[in-house]
From TrEMBL, chain A:
Gene3D superfamilies: P-loop containing nucleotide triphosphate hydrolases. It comes from the Eukaryota. InterPro entries: G_SEPTIN_dom, P-loop_NTPase, Septin. Residues 318-403 form a coiled coil. It comes from Oreochromis aureus (Israeli tilapia). This is Septin. It holds the Pfam family Septin. PROSITE patterns: G_SEPTIN. Residues 36-302 form the Septin-type G domain.
UniProtKB/TrEMBL annotation, chain B:
The lineage of its organism: Eukaryota, Metazoa, Chordata, Craniata, Vertebrata. Its main location: cytoplasm. Residues 52-325 form the Septin-type G domain. Keywords: Cell cycle, Cell division, Cytoplasm, GTP-binding, Nucleotide-binding. This is Septin. It comes from the Eukaryota. It is found in: Cytoplasm. It comes from Oreochromis aureus (Israeli tilapia). Gene3D superfamilies: P-loop containing nucleotide triphosphate hydrolases (3.40.50.300). GO terms for molecular function: GTP binding.
């Protein structure tokens, strides 16, 4: 009690009489972080052909390899690619995940599921690492998604039903920034109306998109003004067009050239500014402190962990873990026994069946044998009878012949008729 | 030298113009010879048709927001869609497809056209679009059935033709080609209606991208065996320029279109277009999009051919199928009276069959008797 009292004393601020030097702490932190390298993971969700790969190429001023996707995928798949980028001695491990086949199926009710599962899987991996006994979080490759760019097709009126459903499912798992893709098809007043409509639909359906943070005064002003410009209307291009006497990134049409980096043409510059130059670190922090923590809490609660027990005692994670483990092993053993028992029973059954069949076969064999014997006997009898008949006939024949011979020898005056009758 | 020139009454391109030309020619030839006068038939047909007026039913299909209503307004230079209610994303999650008809009477140079636009709101908008084309195919079949009944009825004075003559299908320009829902829709309808696929909102594609997409779509249409509307071959005696235009038209499909309800100032003129910070897209500029080609094809040259193909091919197929189904049903169930007068059935009915059987048996008996008698005679001789 004395100890805790001491800690809760009022804190005092002291004046320094000279330069101590701990003001270099942020720099130390930064240099350590820079040495380690940074990790950033972007998820691009949008229908096939909407311009996800092109925008990534434009944002990072490089060409990430990506094959053109087909419209005929049966389900939505997520394809992650990891790249190592370097700029001014800062190393960035960038992972870009694209949704392939999103929006192509006729029945899109299950389309959001693979996306959700992917995000959860990354959280799960991190959680596993965190719970390990021997863990190395400092060089763990963090694959958790820091930002989801949701590409809205510029159909002129509002969000699609699929967009609404998907964003609603994802908003509690990841930071979402909606962008209007291929914005060079929307004229200026249509764009204003579209942005207002999209935001109002998101708000009225309770979808929480990422808000640029406004607590830090250094960036509060720019962030709050950007928040009002969402969703960003973007155009991507890696081709150059000639404007004046410069070559800039853009798209050349018969009626004019769209310049990607011209803020009067589209919001690409704003997106790049917000995403990469100002709020990247905040996105990482939010992912870890908010979305991941939420996932972790839900997961652990599922597994039965509590912060305080029924008798107000605080369980240590270790104890609960051990208890769970024992439970699990017992359960496992029981199941094994069950299966073994089942197996033994099955074997017995099959053996019994086989024996039955054997017996049956034997019986039939005996039966057939008997039948065969009988038939043979019958045939023998018949044969004998036939033989007897034949003998009898032969004898008669012989007798008749001798009689005829006798008759012919004996009386030559016999009337002709008799023979005729005899013959008949 | 007095020979009658065979005059073709079915010039589909610029009929009026050609007709007067030929008429003058004929007149010149026949000045002093025997002039019969049936050369004025085309004139008479023309006059009567103007008096009767024309009708055309056009269906538009495609996802919401593809610019269907804007394009229809641009095509017919009128506003057909006043007070339209658009649904929110939430309302569209489980939306079913509706069929909505707008009918207008428009007139140009004395020619009256009763134009019906059949709209299909909700197509492809729900999250689960299984068989979302069924209400559309049902509607087309219903119109065929209605016409079939009317045509077979006793009083055929005022038959209304509500059959769908053409369906414009809007393909989104954001993808790499046809999507499964596009393929399924066109396959469900290609034997019921003339389908003209269009690439919507083409102002988001550069000329190269348009070409690539058109090639890809034509490939996929072949691959999946989809029968879209084919332009009829032009007559062999048309002039070269005409044939060239026709060839270009056919190679341009599917048309990449842009529509606009607003008028902007471009190059000193007021035109229908879309205003962007980087330039102005003119709807009627052929280097910007294929709107003009579509309009010419749909309205100025092929409107009647579309009607003809609907009557002669799609409707006839439906009718033949219908009759076949009916006769096979009637053969099974003889008591049902045919509500529609059709030619005598090819399968004989029960009475006739009985009669035939009886006669057969009699014949057999007589034959047997004959044989017996012959045998007896033969025996007696012996």
């Amino acid at each position: 009690k004395k100890f805790t009292d001491m800690i809760n004393e009022d804190k005092r601020t002291l004046e320094l009489s000279g330069h101590v030097g701990f003001d270099s702490l942020p720099d130390q932190l930064v240099s350590k972080a820079s040495a380690q390298g940074f990790c950033f993971n972007i998820l691009c969700v949008g229908e096939t052909g909407i311009g996800k790969s092109t925008l990534m190429n434009t944002l990072f001023n490089t060409t990430f390899e990506n094959e053109e996707a087909s419209h005929y995928e049966q389900k939505v798949e997520l394809r992650p690619h990891t790249y190592e980028l370097q700029e001014s001695n800062v190393n960035l491990k960038l992972t870009v995940v694209h949704t392939v086949g999103f929006g192509d199926q006729i029945n899109k009710e299950q389309s959001y599921k693979p996306i959700l599962e992917y995000i959860d899987a990354q959280f799960e991996k991190f959680l596993e690492e965190e719970l390990k006994i021997k863990r190395s979080l400092f060089n763990y490759h963090d694959t958790r998604i820091h930002i989801c760019l949701y590409f809205i097709a510029p159909n002129g009126h509002s969000l699609k039903s699929l967009d609404l459903v998907t964003m609603k499912k994802l908003d509690s798992k990841v930071n979402i920034i909606p962008v209007i893709a291929k914005a060079d098809t929307v004229s200026r007043n249509e764009l204003e109306k579209l942005k207002i409509k999209v935001m109002s639909e998101l708000v009225s359906n309770g979808v929480q998109i990422y808000q640029f943070p406004t607590e830090d005064e250094a960036v509060a002003e720019i962030n709050s003004s950007m928040n009002t410009l969402l969703p960003f209307a973007v155009v991507g291009s890696v081709d150059d067009v000639k404007v004046g006497n410069k070559m800039v990134k853009g798209r050349l049409y018969p009626w004019g050239s769209v310049e990607v980096e011209n803020e009067k043409h589209c919001d690409f510059v704003k997106l790049r500014e917000m995403l990469l130059r100002v709020n990247m670190e905040d996105l990482r922090e939010q992912t870890h402190a908010r979305h991941y923590e939420l996932y972790r809490r839900c997961k652990l609660e599922e597994m039965g962990f509590k912060d305080t027990g029924t008798d107000s005692q605080s369980f240590s994670l270790q104890q609960t873990y051990e208890a769970k483990r024992k439970e699990f092993l017992v359960e496992l053993q029981r199941k094994e026994e069950e299966m073994r028992q089942m197996f033994v029973n099955k074997v017995k059954e099959t053996e019994a069946e086989l024996k039955e069949k054997e017996k049956e076969l034997h019986e039939r064999f005996e039966q057939l044998k008997r039948m065969h014997q009988e038939e043979k006997k019958n045939l023998e009898e018949k044969r004998r009878e036939l033989e007897e008949e034949m003998n009898a006939f032969n004898r008669r024949k012989v007798a008749a012949e001798t009689l005829m011979g006798q008759a012919l020898q004996g009386c030559s005056q016999q009337p002709f008729k008799k023979d005729k009758d005899k013959k008949k | 030298d007095g020979q009658i020139i065979a005059y073709k009454t079915e010039h589909k391109y610029g009929m009026q113009h050609k007709h007067t030309e030929h008429l003058c020619l004929l007149f010149f030839v026949f000045q002093e010879k025997q002039y019969v006068g049936f050369a004025t038939l085309p004139n008479q047909v023309h006059r009567k048709s103007v008096k009767k007026g024309f009708d055309f039913t056009l269906m538009v299909a495609g996802e919401s927001g593809m610019g269907k209503s804007t394009l229809v307004n641009s095509l017919f230079l009128t506003d057909l869609y006043k007070d339209r209610k658009l649904l929110n994303a939430e309302e569209r999650i489980n939306q079913t497809v509706e069929i909505i008809k707008h009918t207008v009477d428009i007139e140009e140079k004395g020619v009256k056209l009763k134009l019906t636009i059949v709209d299909t709101p909700g197509f492809g908008d729900a999250v689960n679009n299984n068989e979302c084309w069924k209400p559309i195919t049902d509607y087309i079949d219903q119109q065929f059935e209605q016409y079939f009944r009317d045509e077979s009825g006793l009083n055929r004075k005022n038959i209304q033709d509500n059959r769908v003559h053409c369906c414009l299908y809007f393909i989104p320009p954001f993808g790499h080609g046809l999507r499964p829902v596009d393929v399924e829709f066109m396959k469900a309808l290609h034997e019921k209606v003339n389908i003209i696929p269009l690439i919507a909102k083409a102002d988001c594609l550069t000329p190269n991208e348009i070409k690539k997409l058109k090639d890809r779509i034509r490939e996929e249409i072949d691959k999946f065996g989809i029968k879209v509307y084919q332009f009829p071959e032009c007559d062999s005696d048309e002039d070269e320029e005409f044939k060239q235009l026709d060839k270009e038209l056919k190679e341009c499909t599917p048309f990449a279109v842009i529509g606009s309800n607003t008028v902007v100032e471009a190059r000193g003129q007021r035109v229908r277009g879309r205003l962007y910070p980087w330039g102005i897209v003119e709807v009627e500029n052929q280097s910007h999009c294929d709107f003009v080609k579509l309009r010419n094809m749909l309205i100025r040259s092929h409107m009647h051919d579309l009607k003809d193909v609907t009557c002669d091919v799609h409707y006839e197929n439906y009718r033949a199928q219908c009759i076949q189904e009916m006769t096979s049903k009637l053969a099974q169930d003889n008591r049902m009276e045919s509500p529609i007068p059709i030619l005598p059935l090819s399968t004989p009915d029960v009475d006739t069959e009985k009669l035939i059987k009886m006669k057969d048996e009699e014949l057999k008996r007589m034959q047997e008797m004959l044989n017996k008698m012959q045998q007896q005679m033969h025996d007696k001789e012996q």
